[in-house]
Amino acid sequence: MPVSYSFSDNILILSKEGKTTHKEFMDAFENAMKDPSCPERVELLIDGRNDELLPTTEEIRKTSSYFATFGDRLGKRALAASSDLLFGLGRMAEAIEGFQDKEMQVFKDYDEAMKWLKEKE
Prior knowledge:
Low-confidence stretches: none
CATH superfamily: STAS domain
């Protein structure tokens, strides 16, 4: 599957591989949130280091709005991006999330993203 998910403590990790569509990404997120092993509250790490198909601005807006429907169940969000273009799109998502009072950051280093998500607020 082009998008897989796993849990590391209270962190939901969505890993994108190859040319993943927005629908595949959203389906994986929904499956993860419904998974019985999903913690009650999760931080989200989107691992885009191997993603070959970038989201559109409209998809970013729709995703941010959808994430907002989870309220306090979905905490901080991080994106691990390897390309400059995905990093820039992630910065745009940061701005959108900021308007929704949610904390999001984009990282070029996966380990730094994990470290930030594990920090207590």
